[in-house]
Write a structure and sequence with these properties.
single chain, alpha+beta, HIT family, subunit A, 5 strands, binds zinc ion
Length: 194
């Protein structure tokens, strides 16, 4: 290997990328870690949770347009949207429109539609992104892990072999390799017409 002359690798093209400089031009203390640069995430991190008009994001969402609210499908009594804080690509939430907290407060009609939307969502996610399995379920009450305990929502989390890594365990961070707007569009377009 040739000694580093500070000019960067042979394929470094200073003419095409005049703002690019080889890393050897910066000061720093190397360590054993790789770096994953995801600058597009800063908008998401800085924005935090969306402001709420009603005090409940799941009551607010249906009043917004599908793109802004990340809604994938609107049913008669329930709807499906992407989780703004996904565990995985295509992490969907299925909610009744009505503001009820607990599963046994949902009417039989709401329960049936939540179930039907969940089944359709499984088929749509399989068609779009080929997961190997799913976690499906509801956290009931803050003590059970519900982030928004006041409004019932069913999680549908696609799983791929090897998708769990050290990130969520040691850093409370999840790498999600697709932008939410793009994920919403793909799922909404694949949703069967009713
Ligand atoms: Zn609500």
């Amino acid at each position: 290997m040739a000694p580093d002359d500070g000019a960067g690798p042979a394929d470094y093209d200073g003419a095409r990328y005049p703002d690019a400089r080889p890393a050897s031009g910066f000061a720093g203390v190397p360590d054993g870690f790789g770096r994953l640069w995801t600058p597009h995430r800063i908008a998401y991190i800085e924005s935090g949770a969306p402001p709420s008009a009603t005090g409940c994001v799941f009551c607010d969402a249906p009043a917004r347009n599908d793109e802004d609210a990340l809604i994938v499908h609107r049913g008669a009594l329930a709807y499906a949207l992407l989780n703004l804080f996904p565990y995985n690509r295509g992490h969907l939430l299925v909610c009744p429109y009505r503001h009820v907290a607990m599963y046994d407060e949902a009417t039989p009609e709401e329960t049936a539609e939540i179930a039907a939307i969940t089944q359709t969502a499984m088929r749509v996610v399989v068609a779009v992104s080929h997961p190997h399995g799913f976690n499906i379920g509801m956290n009931q009450g803050a003590v059970a892990g519900a982030g928004i305990s006041a409004h019932l929502h069913q999680h549908l989390v696609p799983r791929w072999a090897g998708d769990a890594n050290f990130f969520p365990i040691i850093a409370e961070t999840k790498a999600v390799p697709v932008l939410l707007g793009e994920a919403r569009r793909l799922l909404a377009e694949a949703w069967p017409a009713t």
